[in-house]
Amino acid sequence: MVNSHEGISMQGTLLRITRTTAQALLAALLGAGSAFAAGTHGEHAGHAMPAASAPIGTPGDAARVTRTIDIDMTDAMRFTPAQVQVKAGETVRFNVRNSGRIRHEMVLGTDADLQAHYAMMMKDPGMRHEEANAVSLDGGKSGQIVWKFDRAGTVSFGCLEPGHYAAGMKGAVSVQ
Amino acid sequence: MTAFPIPARRRFVQGLAAGGALAALGGWRAAVGQPAAPALPAELRGTEFHLEIGETPVNFTGAARIATTVNGQVPAPLLRWREGDTVTLHVTNRLREQTSIHWHGILLPTDMDGVPGLSFAGIDPGQTFTYRFDVRQSGTYWYHSHSGFQEQTGLYGAIVIDPKRRDPITADRDYTVLLSDWTDEDPMRLFDKLKAMPDYYNRNQPSVESLIRDAGEKGWRAALSERLMWEQMRMNPSDLADVSGATYTFLTNGATPAGNWTGLFKPGERVRLRFINGSAMTYFDVRIPGLKMTVVAADGQDVRPVDVEEFRIAVAETYDVIVEPAEDRAYTIFSQAMDRSGYARATLAPRPGMQAEVPAVDRAQLLGMMDMGMKHDMGGGGHDMAGMSGVDHGAAPAAAGAMAGMNHGAMPGMDHGGAHGSGADQGGIVEVRHPYPEERGPGNSMLPDVVSTRLDDPGIGLRDNGRRVLTYADLRSIREPDDNRAPTREIELHLTGNMERYMWSFNGVKFSDARPIVLRHGERVRFVLVNDTMMTHPIHLHGLWSDLESPDGAFQVRKHTLSLNPAQRLSYRVSADARGNWAYHCHLLYHMEAGMFRAVVVE
Amino acid sequence: MRKRNMRIFFPLSRRAALAAALLAGAAGQQAHGQAMSDHAGMDHGSMPGMDHGAAKPQPATPPAMDHASMPGMDHGAAKPQPAMPPAMDHSSMPGMDHGAPAAAPPVGSLPSSDGAGQRGYDSYGIHPHMMDNAASSRLLFDKFGWSRNRDGQNALEWDGRFWWGTATDRLVLKSEGERESGGGSDGKVEAFWSHAISPFWDLQLGARRDVGAGPKRNWAALGIEGVLPYNIEFETTAYAGPSGRTALAMKAEYDLLLTQRLIFTPELEASAYGRNDPERGIGSGLSKGSLSLRLRYEVTREFAPYIGVSFERKFGRTADYASAAGQGRSQAAVLAGVRFWF
Fold first, then answer.
1. Does C36 touch chain A (CB under 8 A)?
2. Rounded CA gap, C251 and C271, in Å?
3. Cβ contact (<8 Å) for C46 and B521?
4. Fewest Cβ atoms closer than 10 Å to its Cβ: which of B82, B90, B155, B422?
């Protein structure tokens, strides 16, 4: 760790502000950039993920899992359970099982993210979900998401296979 | 009521062990005599195809005949396309008469649709016609001739379109199961026979012998009163299929029951079976004893997976099912004709040459009160009251969250109580008007008083058979149509016919006497179909999707072919989003040729 | 295919959030447009008239908009499903309505028609290829064989017909009679135009000629033929001849299937005349009645040998003529023959 939390210097503060601004600018640029990349929908458009509009957490460290939750995905277009509760700061392992016959997935995000991601899924058919906040499973298979929920609020999840989310395949993590 | 005279015709029904084109050529397989695992239908992939339509000697039953073939094969080769590609198909006609190919269920420009006299002029002898269109969909479809009776003599084949995105349906094996009917007779002669004697092929007619059998089951009073009721109506309760196993040998992927087409698997694998009914006149009731089937697609469209033990596949429909055979043994794919006059048989096995027990054909059920659309119960016992309840509990939309996950229509005939919403018909029985004068003309012999939507009715022959049978109420499209507007007007068409005269039509008016149905481009209409007749008809609209409505009026499932039971009413929405002339007809070939056909023009 | 790792965007600042909203708005429109050309899309060269409610591409909207105030959207009633701007209630996905089921007006409540346009097929370039006007034909002999009566008289008996035409209009030729081995014969030949007037009945208009012993008689004929309730095949014809002759004939028959191939057919015939015709041994009034009972076995549909018995009775003046000629007024016979058609 380079940063020291001991003492606050003028320089340090300036540095932090600069860093934060730079991060924000960079993120905005990349966000805008990916908007255009997504906008020009060619066949080989990059799998440009929309920027999340609110913090939903970070990929978790498997070694620090403090809670395990089993989630089942069914062909009835449902997650079981669809509502879970965790505490802020927890690292949760979701053991996700697809007990159906067709592919389902579980993607963590805000509602805006999920909608945008869904729209892109419809558009770019070859997308694969290898991000830490998502798992895509063939029928009968199991997988996992390890996620750290940083702050209190609600983090949604949903299945973005065409038609599934719309049919009600969604849920929420309530972070206390 | 079995007593189907098989022994004298066992050879015909069972067919040759190695029947087909090879047998006619005296190929070595025929000489060997033992049923080898017939090869899969030939598969063609890519974006450019050359299809040659010609005549090929075949031998399915011991009698040499000529079939109409594509590239020398019956069924025609399986075409494998990719969604997003542009496909070019050069079709050459080597027959002495005109031909055509229609791509069933495929969205394309109207001049590529392949209906002579509507889409294009047809393909003359010696001519090559080039079809070219973008593939905008994925799933299981099929193609067939739309000229004369060529569809009956062998011009039918499968189309499998792989999706652009990863297929949500994953399987270790993927087989097409194309069911069809073969007759050694010349279909024109067959058509003439039907006109001369409409019940020519019905070997299951009510007789004194069957009356004695019925009396043994229901008592003399019930049996007699029922028999007299039908006699008084001048209708035949056993009239399920115009053409039966009396002349048909039923094929699976071009193999007779003796030929035993076999799909291989390793125990524990997931197998995807793409069932296609490419027959001319036969409804098949399909089951695989010992295996549960999960229906995942209908007419090429993904549906919510539903587990069934049996399903009825109407002419021109397709169903994709997933099975997971776990044991190291063979399973029989058993497809019996709706009138129980015969069956098609194939096998799923770990190794070639295996067979499993073939079940006996079910007893044929006769039509009953519900099929007649009679307003009042005639009293007396013994009527077929299965599913008589007026309430159709099928297809509550997904938003009724509590109902999600439940298999609707689980028990045939079971009444879940409580019609949904309000309105004249929530799947219950409604009185039907007959607004068209020709419905009372010579072309229509039956006018039901009441009809019902009853999407949860599996149909004659499948009610209360102790198995979980698929119904339209179980089919729910996963995706809603992009254009899911409510319709702005209705087009009501009655399916009409007179079996005595072998006349079939819409609204009592045959095709040649009618005018085209005209739709405005961009509008969304509701088609309301009322089946006045006592037969089951599959109705197919070219070029535009049919979005079936549930009794509540919500979107239920998207299909290209909808089957109607006797005295049933269905409604579905159509977006007129493709200009041109589109054929609209009953897909029972001889009904279509008799006039049960319309042209739908989108202008 | 380039992929963007989502990790880069976590955590984000508010500016990025705005950018994301812009992006999502753009993507939302694009997705909606694209989705239409994707799965299940049809000809979208033009989509005029397609009303997606407020589906026109939305500029970026601030998040958390109250979707109840969406222009053109009626969430209560059954309405089309427009694409909603993002960052809204997650129950409104593009193209999806999560609220009440999208219930359309009930069947029967919308303006209804048979959909037929004003113009015929020609104006659309449609040239039908159906066979719904095709003619077919059939030659049928209900009876063709021998009879032997109580007096030991053998005769050839026939009852046949030929039709040619469509399901509703046919040319029908009928003939029935007998020819004794001794030389006597009696029969008639009729020709009709037969027109379907109802599902079970035909109207027949034509002519009849009596053949056999005696002068040939010619008649104009008008009759109906069809199926009565209880599946009784019935035909009755009225005749009018020159010099005021009139006649009426009727026939009723029923096929009782004993088994799928063994069929028992009782048949009742009767004829009446307005005038005496002594040259043909016919008296006025009810002239002749006959009942025949036949049992046939369908070797094939087209070929069915039969055996049977027939009873014939003459009445009134006809009986008198018969007695005068040395014949009885009633007669019985055994029959054997074949019913065939093709």
1. no
2. 9
3. yes
4. B422
Touching subunits of C (3+ CB pairs, under 8 Å) are A, B
**Residue pairs between chains B and C whose CB atoms are closer than 8 Å:** 275
Phi and psi based region of residue B210 (left: phi greater than 0; alpha: psi -120 to 50; beta: remaining) = alpha
Phi, psi (degrees; rounded to nearest 5) at B7: -50, -50
Q: What are phi and psi of C163, to 5 degrees?
A: -130, 155
Q: pTM for this one? A: 0.81
CA neighbours closer than 13 Å in the CB half-sphere of residue C82: 20
**pLDDT tens column, B446-504:** 999 999 999 999 999 999 999 999 999 999 999 889 898 999 999 999 999 999 999 99
Alpha carbon A146 to its chain's center: 11
- A171 interfaces chain B, CB cutoff of 8 Å: no
Query: How far apart, in whole angstroms, are the C-alpha atoms of residue B372 and residue B369?
Result: 5
Side-chain-side CA neighbours of residue C98 (13 Å)? 18
Q: How many CA atoms lie within 13 A of B308 on its CB side?
A: 30
CB contact under 8 A, A34 and C23: yes
Encoding tokens for residue B185?
């007779």
How far is the C-alpha of C3 from the C-alpha of A49, rounded, in Å?
8
Closest approach of B545 to chain C, Cα-based (Å): 9
DSSP label of C282: B
**Is B170:A139 a contact under the CB 8 Å cutoff?**
yes
Instruction: Convert the pLDDT of each residue in B300-327 to its tens digit.
Output: 999 999 999 999 999 999 999 999 999 9
Residue type, B357: E
The answer on pLDDT for C93 being more than 50 is no
From B460's Cα to the closest Cα of chain A, the distance in A is: 29
Q: Which residues make Cβ contacts (< 8 Å) with residue B134, sequence separation at least 6?
A: B84, B85, B86, B108
Q: Calculate helix-pair angle for B208-218, B220-233, nearest 10 degrees.
A: 130
User: How large is the ipTM?
Assistant: 0.84
Which residues does chain A have within 8 Å of residue C34's beta carbon, measured at their own beta carbons? 41, 122-123
C316, C284 contact by CB (below 8 A): yes
Task: Indicate the residue of C1, C27, C86 with minimum beta-carbon distance to A38.
Answer: C27
Reported as a single tens digit per residue, the pLDDT across A38-61 is 444 444 444 555 544 457 899 989
User: C-contacting residues of A 43-102, CB under 8 Å?
Assistant: 44-59
Partner residue opposite B554 with nearest CB, options C50, C103, C128 = C103
3-state SS of B240-295?
CCCCCCCCEEEEECCECCCCCEEEECCCCCCEEEEEEECCCCCCEEEECCCCCEEE
Find chains touching chain B: ≥3 CB pairs under 8 Å.
Answer: A, C
Distance from C183 to chain B by nearest Cα, in Å? Answer: 35
Beta-carbon separation of B593 and C132 below 8 A = yes
Q: How far is CA B90 from the centre of its chain?
A: 28
Residue C310 near residue C319 (C-beta atoms within 8 A): no
- Chain A's closest residue to B403, CA to CA, is A76
Q: Rounded CA gap, B347 and B363, in Å?
A: 23
Contacts of A54 in chain C (CB under 8 A): 17
CB–CB of A140 and B480 under 8 A?
A: no
